[in-house]
Amino acid sequence: xxxxxxxxxxxxVREHFLVVFLLAITLPFGWGIFALSAxxxxxxxxxxxxxxxxxxxxxxxxxxxxxxxxxxxELHGRTMRFIESLPTPRYEQLIVxxxxxxxxxxxxAVGELFASEVMALTREPFDGWFLFLxxxxxxxYVFFGxxxxxxxxxxxxIRVLIxxxxxxxxxVIASTTQLELMHFGPFAMVAPEMTTDRVNFPGAEIAxxxxxxxxxxxxx
Length: 220
Known about the structure:
Shape: globular
Number of strands: 0
Strand content: under 5%
Distance between the termini: 22 Å
Structural class: mainly alpha
Helix content: over 70%
Number of helices: 8
C-alpha cells in the first residue's frame, strides 16, 4: 500500500507541479497588496490585518484553483479512466489528492503568516500564545476550506449552482436571523478579532469549523 501511495503522490506532483508553482509565485503579489494597504493606512490597528485579508480573499481562490485542478480536472477527464482501470482501491487515490491539496494550502497559509508576523514585528510585540492563536485559527480555516472545495469538485458542473445556493442561503440567514456569521465557525476564524484578540482561545469555533470540514469530507 505504501508503494502505491508513493506512486500516486509522485504522479500528482508531476501532473500538477506547474499549477502549484504558479500559485507560489503569484500569491505573494496578493499578499503584497494587503501588506502595502496595512502599511499605508493611518487607521491600521495591526499590520497582521494583512494576514486576515489574505485568508479572507486569497486563500479561498487558491483552494478553488487546487480543487478544480486536483479533483474536477481529473475526475471528469480522460486520465481518471486509466487510473480507475488499475487494480487499486479508489480511496487511495483520493486520499493522496486530499492530502496534497491540504499540504499545499497549509504551506501557503503558514508561509504568509510568517511574512505578516515579520512585518508586524517592526511595530508591535507579540508572544508565543498569540502566535499559537493565529496559527490555530489559520489551520482550522484552511482545513474547512479545503474540505469544502475538495468535496465540491465531485459534483462537476453542478458545483457552481451549489455554490450559488450556499451563498444565497448565507445571505438569507444573515438578513433574517440574529445569527452573526462572523462569530460562527469558519467565519469566526477570520473575523476582525483574529488579529486583535490575544487572550481567548476560540475552541468552540474551531470545533465547529473542523466538524463542518469533516462533514463535507464525508459527503465527498
